[in-house]
Design a protein that fits this description.
The chain contains 4 helices and 18 strands. The chain is mainly β. It has a single domain, classed as Immunoglobulin-like, CATH 2.60.40. The protein starts with a helix and ends with a strand.
Length: 340
């Protein structure tokens, strides 16, 4: 038998074995000894009436208010916002300081809105993006009266803390990034199962289904019935060259004082996005459009009840970040930020 035939048989066998796992949710045991599904806290939260009135009242200008919870796996493009990403004046030093000159002329997003309803979020959150030939630069401004975090190990389940998140849509895949106020990073490369085929660009050791830590998303068990089906999540895949920094404007885990918030600054090298880009140009050409999602998840308590609202730049109309068709349109411009 030819070596190539052996490779193909092995690849197909791996795919078949992992497909069998798709019906079983990933579960971890917490430090308290309780089992937790990876996606268990991303159910649509039950919001007490006292919070609900504040959480859904008064949509911010430009937000897309959604009545009820439509099934937006039909991709309501009216919910998608557009943003022009301008060229940076020079390399941006990543230190978490987003009030510096590098960001003063960069347009910020509107205030984030409730991911499901489109109404204004309780706490102000905004993001901004710029680029040069080497990197994509991202900044977050996060209002937070009580900064708190617990997780310090890379690729911990960061959504168990308050966090901000970013998704970058790719060709037959997408990238998920999360970070908390300690600066702890979680990242995953998600590959659509129908694109994971022998001979594709995904047939590499870093994306081997049997040797890597792999999660499954999409199916009956987690409610994410995306029309395209399931996707593999490679948790050990790292975006090479990624730089991040966090600045805390307050004192973390000290509830007796009032904090202003925290900021995040990110540099993503275009060279690290080769697998996502597929046939697209890297760096992008002026006029190119990418899809990206920017969001925040907040752990709140009201009269003993836990709620976990999701706030995002773009309304999704459903409590699900993993919908590339509803990511914000990022239009790359050759105009510099100083020319705006």
């Amino acid at each position: 038998m030819k070596k190539s035939d052996n490779s193909r048989r092995s690849f197909l066998r791996n795919s078949f074995l992992l497909s069998a796992a798709a019906a079983v949710p990933a579960v971890w045991t917490t430090a308290e000894g309780k089992n937790r599904s990876e996606f268990g806290n991303r159910e649509t939260p039950a919001i007490p009436s006292e919070i609900e009135s504040a959480h859904t009242g008064g949509a911010s200008p430009g937000s897309s208010t959604v009545t009820g919870q439509p099934n937006n796996y039909g991709y309501n493009q009216d919910l998608c916002k557009h943003y022009t990403c301008y060229r940076s004046a020079g390399p941006v030093h990543i230190d978490g300081e987003v009030e510096k000159e590098d960001w003063k002329s960069v347009p910020r997003s509107p205030r984030f809105v409730d991911m499901t309803t489109g109404n204004s979020a309780i706490l102000d959150t905004r993001a901004a993006v710029q680029w040069d030939d080497q990197n994509l630069y991202v900044a977050y401004w996060i209002q937070e009266p009580n900064i708190a975090a617990t997780l310090t190990k890379r690729d911990s389940l960061i959504w168990n803390d308050n966090d901000v998140e970013m998704f970058i849509g790719g060709e037959d895949c997408y990238y998920e990034f999360e970070i908390n106020s300690f600066g702890t990073v979680y990242e995953v490369l998600w590959v659509w199962q129908d694109a994971y085929k022998h001979g594709s660009r995904f047939e590499i050791p870093e994306l081997d289904l049997l040797t890597q830590k792999v999660e499954v998303l999409g199916g009956e068990f987690d409610g994410r019935k995306h029309p395209r089906g399931g996707r593999w999540g490679f948790r050990e895949w790292d975006l090479k060259g990624l730089k991040t920094a966090v600045k805390v404007n307050g004192t973390a885990n000290k509830s007796e004082d009032l904090d202003a918030g925290w900021n995040v600054e990110i540099a993503i090298p275009w060279s690290g996005l080769k697998l996502l880009a597929g046939e697209r140009s890297l760096p992008p050409k002026p006029g190119d459009v990418w899809r990206m999602d920017f969001s925040r998840f907040e752990l709140l308590k009201e009269r003993g009840a836990n709620i976990n609202p999701g706030w995002s730049w773009n309304t999704h109309g459903i409590y699900d970040s993993h919908i590339p068709e509803l990511f914000t349109y990022i239009h790359f411009s050759d105009k510099g930020v100083g020319e705006i």
